[in-house]
Amino acid sequence: MTDGLYPRLADAFPALAVEIAELLRAEGDSLAEVVADLPYHGPCTCTATCINLLTAPFGSSGSTMIQLERDGMDVIWLSLDPYRTTITDIEVLDGRDLGPSVQQSG
Description:
Elements: H1 9-12, H2 14-26, E1 42-43, E2 52-54, E3 65-70, E4 73-80, E5 87-92
């Protein structure tokens, strides 16, 4: 459920949201259930080269990260809030083109 100010990650990046949920489910991680409703706050603007997608306001992350793998290679890193209840940002590591949805939202 989003607050109406931001589109859902699943609407901005449907294939990515499905992939993240599937990889989390394969690991038995209950965070798979929050992916469909994550808001998309836009790309991180901490540096000109940052490739993270924010699913919470900048600075919301705690110190926990989940590394998702495909064929033994890290493909996506997820940063979590301090309570490990939601995903705060997503770093896609495999170089895929995420298209025009990688733009500032809200």
